[in-house]
Write a structure and sequence with these properties.
single chain; about 200 residues; alpha+beta; 5-stranded antiparallel β-sheet; 11 strands
Length: about 200
């Protein structure tokens, strides 16, 4: 990731909206939902849902679910969680999400996760192991660009590799860093998180 051009926020948003069409097809044909409501405009109402990390509401089965969606172009068999949406002032979606479920899309599969269970497991087992000095090191090594830093953490005496990731964002009026960590799925299984996988 290091050395890549800045992350273009608006371009990324347009790409995700295009992928949302494919997500809707999945929800309709596999989950057999009856209605999908998306919050993908710049209206005040939609922005309120977006700030709560809710991209869509799925209706069916006599209930509804608030869904956070993430789309990844490459499957590294890990889950990226956002610690800071704008470092250091604004916490990321792992801290302030109001979603019920996380739909984590790879090119050939979907990982469906109970978001509340994810947050609880993360706060209990992972967050205490996040090393702020690693974030400082990551930023110092990658000024005004994307970057990553490999580290290790231990769960039940087993060592797992995690990666601290910095995305350098740039618009016409401002720049900011987004900070997160990628967690291998076997680590998530080790802390008791249940993942449901669907082929696309």
């Amino acid at each position: 990731m290091a050395g890549q051009s800045p992350h273009n926020f608006w371009k990324s948003l347009k790409v995700e909206r295009k992928k949302a069409v494919l997500a809707d097809a999945f929800y309709t044909h596999v989950f057999e939902v009856e209605k999908i409501i998306r919050f993908d405009t710049e209206s005040g109402r939609d922005m309120e849902f977006q700030r709560a990390d809710i991209d869509a509401q799925l209706y069916g089965w006599g209930r509804h679910s608030n869904v956070s969606e993430k789309f990844r172009d490459v499957d590294y068999n890990d889950l990226y969680v956002e610690l800071y949406s704008m470092y250091p002032a604004t916490k990321g979606w792992m801290h302030n999400s109001a979603a019920d479920h996380l739909a984590y899309f790879f090119p050939t599969r979907l990982i469906w996760i109970n978001k509340k269970e994810l947050i609880i497991a993360f706060q209990q087992h992972i967050l205490p192991k996040i090393i702020e000095s690693k974030i400082d090191e990551l930023i110092a090594q990658n000024p005004s660009k994307n970057g990553s830093l490999l580290a290790e953490t231990t769960i039940d005496s087993i060592s797992y590799k995690i990666r601290y990731i910095k995305a350098y964002n740039k618009t016409a009026t401002k720049v900011w860093d987004t900070i997160g960590v990628s967690l291998p799925f076997d680590l998530l299984a080790a802390i008791g998180l249940k993942l449901r996988e669907y082929k696309l």
